[in-house]
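Sequence of PROP1-like PPR domain-containing protein (Sphagnum troendelagicum).
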Amino acid sequence: MARGRLSAIFLQRARLRHFPAPWRATSALSKLGVVEYSCASEEGDALLMGQRERTYSSAAVSAAYAARNYANNIAEYNRALLEINNSRRSYLMRDVYEDMQIDGVQPMRDTFHTLITGCMKGDRLQDVMYFFDEMKTMGLVPDVVLYNCVITSCGRCNQIDRAFQVAEEMESYGIQPKHRTFLALLKSCGTAGRVDEAYGVVRRMAACGLTLNSSCYSALIMAYKNRKPVNEDTVHKIFELLEQSKGCEGGSAEGEARDDFEEELASLVTGGDLQPTRSYVNRRFTVYFAALRAFAELGNATAVKSVIEMLEQAGYQVDASSVTELVKCHIAQGDLENAVTVFDKFVESGKNPTLNLYITLIQGCLMKLNAFKLASAKRLLEQMDQRGYFLNTIIGSNLLTLASNEYGGDFSTANCIWDMMQKRNLRLSFRAVSAYYNGLQRHKVPEDDARLVAVREVVTKNQKRFNWTSGPQPVAEHEGDFERGSRKLKEPF
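Predicted 3D structure, token representation.
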């Protein structure tokens, strides 16, 4: 009897280690349904006193457990996993799976599909392989969709050799690779810049009777772009792929099972990371946009213009995404005037610029500030406001931090960003507010200015909250003692 109770005690102690320290206190354990008990041997000697175990014998404890429990059966757990998957919080997948194990709920094939696809979207390769191994341990044979997801996850995490190992394992189990299996391998080779392995995959596709589509050509372009060293041959090869891709299909025509998960995989493999904004949905532009992005990252403005001309000759309308890549290329070369000129011509043609185009150009204007850049940034911000675009907290904070570095002029660009954020009642980061506050003081704004009063209130509130004071901070007595705070922030802003 005593030996059995000791085993239960040690098991409960291992479970309690999963809880943080505040939850292991006596007052908090009662909320978790944990009660104290003592274990004694047959002779009456107390072996362990004050040990705790989880029990739900009483009605009060069961009610408390029901109030904080989110799932009781496999259907409720699958629903919770789908919500986590849709909200892209893949870091919670492992916790939910451990809760299933504690509750004794047996996962199904759909459960592992949700777990693996969710972790694939979050680039959590370790969790993907863990769930993949758990599925095989339980006797569930993965299908081709799951193998495609695992290969894609390995490629996104730059584990190319592992991706090919998973593909070989799939074939060893007698599962025939599909078109998207080869596409996932091509994308993995493109991420690592392995051109030879990519063409090896193309030859295997031809042996299986499969043809290349626009997504495959995009992966090959990515492979050439990421291959080192970059030379003139890289540009010629990308243009050759553009010519070869004319007339190819926009996607795979073969039907595969589980369309819901395949669409999730297709968005990641075929164009998910090729689209700068959600507005880009034209799959016919996939190869062209892959080339545009490749040339923009290589800093070749001439090649970007050539691709845009090819788009126009093919009868396609040049959209804002293509213009954004050309603007990025001009900004990278330090030619902001041409970038602004390209933007103005695009707007004068009657086309609508996207928010991503505005943000890209404004960020370029706020680098290495001068009078022309500040005036252009302010004009673009006013156009954004007129068209109904707005800044979120992260982008607004970054732009305000950059604009606050202005040492000459009227400081109107930073004021415009501040007014746009205040109009929507959005909270800025303390770094941006501090930079803006220093800029207002540097430009000697009157003390009764409304902006200065509002910024000073935010700065004072944060100083009281975090116990920050302006000026140099006292240095600890022992400079070598890191734990005593010898390295403190001397200038809060």
